[in-house]
Design the sequence.
């Protein structure tokens, strides 16, 4: 994958970790990390060719979101197989 993908993937994972363990996060911080996660997955979807334009509401459709998550999952599998 490209450097852009790696950057957005790292931000997506970091934001997911922050959101899944919100201890000590204030509401505005939680919202910020949620926004970062949404922006990152949208950027990944664009990079992967799943979408061509950023949706007007800034959020992927359910189908595009699932396609992007599946692509991320395949990427993670390939990374773990490459490290073995």
Sequence:
């Amino acid at each position: 994958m490209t450097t852009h993908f790696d950057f957005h993937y790292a931000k997506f994972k970091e934001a997911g970790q922050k959101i899944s363990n919100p201890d000590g996060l204030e509401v505005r911080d939680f919202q910020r990390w949620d926004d970062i996660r949404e922006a990152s997955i949208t950027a990944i979807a664009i990079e992967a060719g799943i979408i061509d334009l950023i949706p007007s509401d800034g959020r992927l459709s359910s189908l595009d979101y699932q396609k992007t998550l599946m692509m991320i999952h395949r990427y993670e599998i390939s990374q773990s197989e490459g490290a073995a």
Observations:
- The helical segments are 3-20, 27-47, 62-83.
- Residues 3-83 form one domain.
- The chain has one domain: 3-83.
- The chain is about 75% helix and 0% strand.
